[in-house]
Amino acid sequence: MPNPFRLVLLFVLPAIAYGTSIAIIRTDREIVIATDSRALDLAQKSESDVCKIRNAGPLNFTFVGESAIAGVDFKTITERVLLSGGTLDERLGNLVKELRPHLERALQTSPEAKALAIKQGSITSIAVYGLYEGRLTLKVIIFPVSGDGHLGVATRASCPGSQCQNGRFPVAVPQGTINTNMEPIRAVRAFVKSWIDKGVPSIGGPIQVLRIDSSGKRAWDAEKPSVCEDQP
Fold first, then answer.
1. C-alpha span between 109 and 154 (Å, rounded)
2. Adjacent-strand bridge partners of 137
3. In this predicted model, what pLDDT tens digit does every residue of 56-90 receive, in sequence order?
4. Which residue segments constitute the domains of the chain, with CATH numbers given?
5. What is the pLDDT of residue 15?
6. Contacts with 18 (C-beta within 8 Å, 6 or more apart), sequence order
7. CA–CA separation, 150 vs 203, rounded Å?
8. What per-residue confidence (pLDDT) applies to 46?
9. DSSP state at residue 80
């Protein structure tokens, strides 16, 4: 019988400048996430590999899409806000308020960012996950962009919560599937590897895989990639 609190979340944004491959599975026993490491600029040129599994105290977060503009690092903002006071929902609300003007500026000043956001239907999304108030929690914020390039109202979804009943979650998956019959940590790794093996220029190794158990303990699967050495 399917676990009603199991959530499979897949982000696949291939063949775009901010392309990335990320898979997250959340169950009552664990959260596992796998990502690729490749970073591209707006001209679709490779930059140094980056750690996409970022830490903020008892939580972790991962960006899918725009994570910085000139002089502003969204990851630094996110870490600071997640480490601040208030409930998690309050912190996420504050994060939306802080990021929105920067995202609007990116759409207004960067034709490349605007074109990519229109193509994707959003300029960025953020997955926040970890142990919160004794429960394994996964929350997602999506910053949608309309066909004419305007930033819409950010949408949020959460698990535990009504959105993840029977594994359903309001995030569109453009392409790709995951083998839910496999052990979760193997399934997310296999999903990301399948995209790397396709040779998509915007997706590349090494693969980053993290497991968080029901006590909040984090463990990297296999060897921690060197790009993540500064992350616990």
1. 20
2. 130
3. 999 999 998 888 888 889 999 999 999 999 999 99
4. 7-228 (3.60.20)
5. 30
6. 40, 64, 65, 66, 116, 120, 202
7. 27
8. 58
9. H
